[in-house]
Each structure stands twice: as structure tokens, then as C-alpha cells.
Design a protein that fits this description.
Order of helices and strands: EEHEEEEEE
Strand content: 25-35%
Radius of gyration: 13 Å
Bound molecules: FE2/S2 (inorganic) cluster
Length: 105
């Protein structure tokens, strides 16, 4: 099931921004500038954002307000970015995070 977050409890965002392209794990994804990255991913049916350090278990949306870090991904090369509270910008490069998001982690 795909869904789009239209009213976010933290960000003043709505899917009314300019339609832009971001790259998610090497694939182009259309998103609305200013909406939370996680909202754009959910709209495309992408529900796994990271894998845990010890057991490599998948994690995704949990709190949706920037408190739990389950939505952490690598954004423009920076690991541990909470995608539920980070707004989309044109050209962002987003990667699923394994462990701590560093080589060998
Ligand atoms: S879902 Fe909890 S910090 Fe993003």
C-alpha cells in the first residue's frame, strides 16, 4: 500500500512544492520539494530505511517525529539522517543505511 503524508506534525510541509527528482538507491524518484523524505519514499512504496547494526533487521517509519532514528538513511553521503523530519531538496542522493552507515559497520 502506498500513501502520501499530507499533514506532518513537525514540518510545515504539504505535497504542493515543486516536483523534483531525487535518487534513492540509484533509482530516480519524483518527490515534492519541502515534503519529508520519508513521505516521498512511502508514496513510492519504499518502507525500509535502514538495517540494524547487530542483526541486520529492517527498520522504517516508527515515530514519524524525529525521536526514534528508525528512519535514518544516508543522505548526500551523510549517515544517520532522520528522513521523517528532513525536507526534500532537488537532486538529493539517498541510500538505504546498513548498520552505522560507514564502511565495515
Ligand atoms: S521515524 Fe522515528 S525518527 Fe523518523
Amino acid at each position: 500500500m502506498c500513501m502520501r503524508v499530507e499533514n506532518h506534525v513537525v514540518l510545515d510541509t504539504a505535497p504542493s512544492g515543486r516536483l523534483v527528482t531525487i535518487t534513492v538507491d540509484g533509482q530516480p524518484v519524483e518527490a515534492f520539494e519541502g515534503e519529508a523524505i520519508l513521505a516521498a519514499l512511502l508514496a513510492k512504496g519504499i518502507i525500509i530505511n535502514r538495517y540494524t547494526v547487530k542483526k541486520q533487521e529492517p527498520r522504517g517509519l516508527f515515530c514519524g517525529i524525529g525521536q526514534c532514528t528508525d528512519c535514518a538513511m544516508i543522505v548526500d553521503g551523510k549517515p544517520n539522517v532522520r528522513t521523517c523530519i528532513t525536507p526534500v531538496r532537488a537532486g538529493m542522493v539517498i541510500e538505504t543505511q546498513n548498520g552505522l552507515g560507514k564502511a565495515g559497520a
